[in-house]
Each structure stands twice: as C-alpha cells, then as structure tokens.
Sequence to fold (258 residues):
Amino acid sequence: MQQDVYWIVRFQQRILIDTFNPEGPSFLNHTAFLQYEHTPPIMVGHWNGVPCYATDLSELPEGFPVEAVHLRQLFSVAGPEAFALAGRATQLIDWQSTHQFCGRCGSPTQLMHHEYVMHCNACGLNSYPRISPAVMVLVRRGFQLLLARSPHFRPGVFSALAGFVEAGETLEECARREVMEEVGIEIGHMRYFESQSWPFPNSLMIAFVAEYAGGEITPDPSEIEAADWFDIDNLPRLPDQVSIARRLIDSAVRELLP
Fold:
C-alpha cells in the first residue's frame, strides 16, 4: 500500500472510507480511484503525520472496496480528527468548484498553491474560501437552561440558540440580537465557551454561555418551533456529541451540578 499520501475522496456528498484497514477505518491511501473522473486534488493538511489531499469523484463503479459515509457519520465512524479534516476538505472542494470563474470579470481562475486562493489572471481578483461565522448562546437561569428547537431539527431534539453574524456586527451584539429575536429574552453577562468549524456548509460556530437578564419566552414562529426553560436534571433530547451544542450543554450541566 502507498502510505506517503492519504486521500479524502468525496462521492455524491459522502466520504469514501477504507473500512478494511486493520488499524481501523481510515481515509484512502491508494490511488485506484484516480482512473475515474475527479476534480483537481487540493492539499488539505495531514492525517497521521502524512500529507492529505482531497478530491470529488463524479463516478464510482459498484463493488469498489470502500464505504461511503455521510460527513456527519464520520465522527462516530473514524473519530473527531477525521471529522474535522474531512469537514475542511469538503469546504475546500465546494469553494474550488464554485469559484472556477472570476466573480468580477468572468475569466477562468487558477488555484494558487502557496495559499488557499482562486486567482484571476485577467483582473487580479483573489477569491478565498467562504467562512460564515455564527454565534451560539446557552442562556442560564439558576439551575435551568433555555433550550429551543427549530422545525429542521430531528424530532424531539432541543438545543442552544444560534444565528449568523451580520455585517458590521460584533459577536456579542449578534448573541444579544439573536436571543432577543428568536425568543424575546434579554441576556446579561456572557462568557466565551469554545468554537467549532461546522462544514454544513461553511460555518464557524462560536459558543457563549449567557446569564438571563429579563423577559418572557416568546418564540419567533418563523425560526423557533418550541422553547422553554429546562431543569438540568430533566433535559429533553439533545444534539449528538459531534456538535459543539452538546459540549456546551454538557459543560453547563457539569458546572451547575452540586
């Protein structure tokens, strides 16, 4: 086997995984797939200390010895590091495919290799990977957490509030605006928790814990299906471990437990 390069190969929005590897599920470390039509490879980082490239296949014959895994499943199949690297790969593949032509003059662009940039030789415009920052806020009131559910969630799942940062807005301003818009609640002191790249399709989630300051829950029906205060010992169904939302909620519960 060739172990000097690993490949994150996407086919029909799924990641191809070598499940026959005796050391466990892994990205591909052979190039048999390159005989089929694929996008230009792009360097995305390192996997187990080995350079890793990404590409998107347009065809794959039946019986090819791999398993096609949805990106969300990769966390449980191959672990958080594989999920993070594959998420980076899918974002770069999508960026490359949607920036083949200059957005200013329409000329073909070229992928530069010293950094992630699609360069237009005709007018000089550089296009970088799109990253959409979004704020997540877990509001606390005593030993209760404010959780809500979107109509897009799986049945029964509640989570922290979240929304995209608008142009000219700070993270703190976004957090206060989103909480007010979605549930009509004012928040007081806020503290940063952590962040997570969320490649669905290109978000950067920045999570905060905030203290309740006032107001009654009034959900915005266009975004929120239900919202309520939940005791930490009687929480509803929560997001999967792959999401920063779950870590945010679990951390708050640990802090509040006697």
